[in-house]
């Protein structure tokens, strides 16, 4: 518990107190937000935001790393492979986002990496991550990830390795790649209004931290777990360490939101939004809640889902649009909703979905006891 509180407190203090220092550096380096022009597509009037420091995701990524390592060592709970894998995915996706952001700033255009190059960068991060996640078994032969599809825990009937090691490994890597790319791009699409992605990230990652803490309390092979509850235990390899890194990340977002709330003094950029997606993907895989994450983090699916629907509706109807603009939060702007109204209501949706996901997990546990 000391590691958990220390990691969260340091990450919060880092982003809350040091963001002004980073902003001075960002302005000196010319890291100002590039706003799409009417030639790039019809957009809501965001011209006033041009030049606002961007790539602020660097701040809470660093805050998470600092908080996590200080918290784990100071609290007597050294980092585990599971926590390091979350850091790996977070930093890897952040680097891809940083390259995208830097290209925009350097070229002074709203276009950075092309879609396929961005996905290629994500795949380069994910494939070795997936291979390593099946290594390092502990005393009870638990590896950080498992070759099963999971909802609240592994589904025994959906085991990739049942098809053989070679085929199973390939299918597992494809599954993990899909999860990583999907979440990273979904969070990236959601980052379009001041505080929207940061606030939603606090609710979703915070909920995932609660999930892993519950798994820690009900972990298999725990001496404190009474025999009657062993049938409902969780086989997550390092649930407490996952809780620590998720709490550090959520706390970092809280500190960042102080400066990112409307009217934002800094934007997280793709480096930040893709890092959020990386943490969601890694946490869902390592906590064996890949499908449950669709509910817990469902607010991020609204934006990406609206983009997909818009594209296919446009093709099927030969030019008609389902939304005035996608992603959905820009559609609401075009309908005349105030930016703050959209952001707060999306936060409410994020909170409801996150709480529902945690509630479903508890109900499932009750059915197993």
Automatic annotation (TrEMBL):
Keyword Ribonucleoprotein: yes or no?
no
Q: What does the UniProt entry say about where the protein is found? A: Cell membrane; Membrane
- Catalysis performed (reactions): UDP-N-acetyl-alpha-D-muramoyl-L-alanyl-gamma-D-glutamyl-meso-2,6-diaminopimeloyl-D-alanyl-D-alanine + di-trans,octa-cis-undecaprenyl phosphate = di-trans,octa-cis-undecaprenyl diphospho-N-acetyl-alpha-D-muramoyl-L-alanyl-D-glutamyl-meso-2,6-diaminopimeloyl-D-alanyl-D-alanine + UMP
Q: In which pathway does it act?
A: Cell wall biogenesis; peptidoglycan biosynthesis
Which keywords annotate this record?
Cell cycle, Cell division, Cell membrane, Cell shape, Cell wall biogenesis/degradation, Magnesium, Membrane, Metal-binding, Peptidoglycan synthesis, Transferase, Transmembrane, Transmembrane helix
Q: Name one GO cellular component term.
A: plasma membrane
For this protein, the Enzyme Commission number is: 2.7.8.13
Q: Which portions of this protein are annotated as coiled-coil regions?
A: none
Q: Which InterPro entries match?
A: Glycosyl_transferase_4, PNAcMuramoyl-5peptid_Trfase, PNAcMuramoyl-5peptid_Trfase_CS
Sites where the protein binds Mg(2+): 188, 270
| Pfam families named in the record | Glycos_transf_4, MraY_sig1
Molecular function per GO: metal ion binding; phospho-N-acetylmuramoyl-pentapeptide-transferase activity
Cofactor annotation: Mg(2+)
PANTHER family linked to this entry: PHOSPHO-N-ACETYLMURAMOYL-PENTAPEPTIDE-TRANSFERASE (PTHR22926), PHOSPHO-N-ACETYLMURAMOYL-PENTAPEPTIDE-TRANSFERASE HOMOLOG (PTHR22926:SF5)
Spell out the family assignment given in the record's similarity comment: Belongs to the glycosyltransferase 4 family. MraY subfamily.
> What is the annotated role of this protein in its UniProt record?
Catalyzes the initial step of the lipid cycle reactions in the biosynthesis of the cell wall peptidoglycan: transfers peptidoglycan precursor phospho-MurNAc-pentapeptide from UDP-MurNAc-pentapeptide onto the lipid carrier undecaprenyl phosphate, yielding undecaprenyl-pyrophosphoryl-MurNAc-pentapeptide, known as lipid I.
Q: What is this protein called?
A: Phospho-N-acetylmuramoyl-pentapeptide-transferase
């Amino acid at each position: 518990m000391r590691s958990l509180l220390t990691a969260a407190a340091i990450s919060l203090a880092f982003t809350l107190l040091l963001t002004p220092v980073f902003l001075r550096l960002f302005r000196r380096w010319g890291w100002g937000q590039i706003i799409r022009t009417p030639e790039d597509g019809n957009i809501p009037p965001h011209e006033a935001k041009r030049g606002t420091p961007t790539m602020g995701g660097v701040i809470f990524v660093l805050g998470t790393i600092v908080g996590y390592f200080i918290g784990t060592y100071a609290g007597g709970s050294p980092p585990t492979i599971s926590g390091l894998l979350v850091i790996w995915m977070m930093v890897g996706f952040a680097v891809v986002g940083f390259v995208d952001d830097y290209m925009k700033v350097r070229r002074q255009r709203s276009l950075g990496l092309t879609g396929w190059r961005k996905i290629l960068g994500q795949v380069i991060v994910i494939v070795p991550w997936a291979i390593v996640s099946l290594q390092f078994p502990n005393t009870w032969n638990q590896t950080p990830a498992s070759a099963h599809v999971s909802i609240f825990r592994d589904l025994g009937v959906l085991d990739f390795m049942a098809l053989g090691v070679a085929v199973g490994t390939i299918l597992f890597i494809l599954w993990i790649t899909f999860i990583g790319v999907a979440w990273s791009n979904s969070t990236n699409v959601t980052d379009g209004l001041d505080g929207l992605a940061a606030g939603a990230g606090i609710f979703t990652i915070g909920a995932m931290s609660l999930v892993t803490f519950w798994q820690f309390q009900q972990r298999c092979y725990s001496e404190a777990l009474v025999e009657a509850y062993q049938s409902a235990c969780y086989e997550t390899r390092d649930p407490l360490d996952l809780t620590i890194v998720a709490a550090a990340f959520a706390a970092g977002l809280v500190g960042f939101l102080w400066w990112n709330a409307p009217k934002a003094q800094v934007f997280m950029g793709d480096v930040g939004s893709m890092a959020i997606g990386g943490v969601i993907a890694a946490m869902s895989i390592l906590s064996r809640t890949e499908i449950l994450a669709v509910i817990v983090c469902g607010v991020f699916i609204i934006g990406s889902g609206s983009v997909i629907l818009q594209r296919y509706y446009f093709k099927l109807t030969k030019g008609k649009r389902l939304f005035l603009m996608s992603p959905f939060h820009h559609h609401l702007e075009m309908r005349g909703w105030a930016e703050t109204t959209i952001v707060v209501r999306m936060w409410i949706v994020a909170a409801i979905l996150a709480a529902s996901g945690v509630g479903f997990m508890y109900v499932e546990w009750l059915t197993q006891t």
